[in-house]
């Protein structure tokens, strides 16, 4: 058996030493996942709020569909994006395959349903509270969505964090559309997969711990920001 | 007011990300003057060979080489979709079919190594030390000793299936029993084999550089049938218009050149040579 | 608070609107009035087989404060919501100056709920939001919002998150927010039900000030003392119907309906009241 603990701590030594390759990988992970979450937020927040506010035939089915899409398998999304972006696919001309752009697209597709579904739940709860008051103002659906999104902002942060967690931890989609190319599309999770396939289990585990530590820090920072701001805005 | 700070912090974060996104989209293209995509197998990457030789090519030519390392089957399919400039794999019949279909220009022998069967120290099938792979497989089947198969249509998997056929055994009949198809890459399959004390067929390069050997050792080696030939092919620019033919051909020429071949030969792990160049002299 | 002119006594006319002396008709109650006369015809609202509003005809015009009284479950709050266009009747019509309520005129009818609905924003933000919904130009919003808070003596709390304010402050904010839109009609649904005496006085003062500025007020309440302080006329409801509609002075001293008389005498109709309460709790 290999010297597990030694290699395990090697991963942390890389962090402590600010190993440039590791930093590059971590940086790309953050960039890709944050961009994906931003895109998912731009689509998912209004979409979820719209579903919470609008009443139309088939809305129930749409909500069920959206909730189910939260569990989209990353591999399937990766494959679908690969088929679209492949040179043999309809969007091949964009030449995005095996670039971070492709990874962002795949992760945005994974995260959008999560953001939208959680937004719908949050906004619908708040809608119950606000609907009658907003009706006294003659508020139309768009103004209602805008009001609810603004007022639910701190709760919606949780939806975005859930989406970010999904994106940063996901490997199935980015490895297919990114190709795990060294210095180009290699992120934390694909590095972990690679180290595992090389049999470097301790190193892989160490990198996994680094990934978790990063996710925890980001959550901690945002949540403390949120609670400071929430204390000031809610009662 | 705290809320203002929060919102402006959020706004700033969004702005930074938007800039990042823009940078992400064009960033890679700026990283080198020019780049090519090589669809290759996990063995060339996991063994560290490509990490060893590619920087020297980039330094010389200014062409960055981006490697997508997947199973041979998937690499060939990706290349057939035009998603790559060069194909570097190890399954000669499939490669020849790739060229015959018009997806590739021409196939060149690049290098070889060999496959080995590795297994647990306990050696339940009693095959350690054998150099007759067909007989060894028969013994494994007879003993119903666990055997981990790649099961992913990779070069190694194709080789394994050919060997079973030669042994006159249909292991698929025992699938789920002693014959276990992992459907994964070489490394993952080795991890699985170690985990369940199963024999498995692996290329020697991956095995030597594999770090999670536990008590496993090579059981069968040295049979001519275990020969493992790697080939390199330029994806056909006539069929796939995005192929960077010039840069791709430059990479192939370099691999086949004396310099490239010597570099392949000089790559060693733990003092052992992993790949043996055998390109025809040009 | 009691020094403003009372409307002259008139003969009891149970359901029909009461004529209002010309000198009390505010200047902006012209034929082009956005809301008045506010009228209901044959209004019915039923749930689970019970008519919670049972064929009500009602017209609101003129000026002053009309207090709607009655037992729990009599249908007071529901009638208010129907008249405000917040709830669709099962039968009958509500019209604002001849036309059905519409979104464009919604902000001309203010509404304050028993439990204030405040946005998760500052006091100022709440008023600004309402002004924005009412189509007030961006440049004017802050100014008007500050004015409204000033009138409600909430100016020092402008930057405080609304949901951190006390119950009394929250209700005052809700009222200030409604008044900032300069509504033609203001509907108050038991706005002081759970407030301390000081807060109640604040709310009442604001309501009377609004009436002086020409706003017509419909006020749902239980409190007889408060009704005496505020009401120009009283509508007494029972079991989804209007039992009587009388000028305030007449109502308190000489109610026209036996039901109202018993109500004023403190006869809480104990058995029936309990039954109604139970039913009210099970219906929204």
From TrEMBL, chain A:
Listed transmembrane segments: 28-54, 61-85, 97-118, 130-150, 156-181, 201-225
Keywords of this entry: Membrane, Transmembrane, Transmembrane helix
**Biological process terms in GO annotation:** transmembrane transport
Primary subcellular site in the record, as a coarse category: membrane
Query: Where in or outside the cell?
Result: Cell membrane
The source's superkingdom equals Bacteria
Q: Tell me the membrane topology, using the record's own terms.
A: Multi-pass membrane protein
Limits of the ABC transmembrane type-1 domain: 26-222
A GO cellular component annotation here is: plasma membrane
What is the name attached to this protein's record? Tungstate transport system permease protein
Q: Which organism is it from?
A: Breoghania corrubedonensis
Its organism's taxonomic lineage begins at:
Bacteria, Pseudomonadati, Pseudomonadota, Alphaproteobacteria, Hyphomicrobiales
UniProtKB/TrEMBL annotation, chain B:
Taking every annotated instance into account, which residue ranges of this chain make up the domain PBP? Answer: 28-259
Q: Which domain of life is it from?
A: Bacteria
Which Pfam families does its entry note? PBP_like_2 (PF12849)
Tell me if tRNA processing is a UniProt keyword of this record: no
Q: Which positions carry the signal peptide feature in this UniProt record? A: 1-18
Q: Which UniProt keywords apply?
A: Signal
Answer yes or no on keyword Signal.
yes
The name on file for this protein is Tungstate transport system substrate-binding protein
User: Which source organism does the UniProt entry give?
Assistant: Breoghania corrubedonensis
Lineage in the entry? Bacteria, Pseudomonadati, Pseudomonadota, Alphaproteobacteria, Hyphomicrobiales
From TrEMBL, chain C:
Listed Gene3D superfamilies: P-loop containing nucleotide triphosphate hydrolases
Location comes to: Cell membrane
Residue ranges of the region described as Disordered: 1-20
Q: Name one GO molecular function term.
A: ATP binding
Main localization category: membrane
Q: Which family does it belong to?
A: Belongs to the ABC transporter superfamily.
Q: What is this protein called?
A: Tungstate transport system ATP-binding protein
| Gene source species | Breoghania corrubedonensis
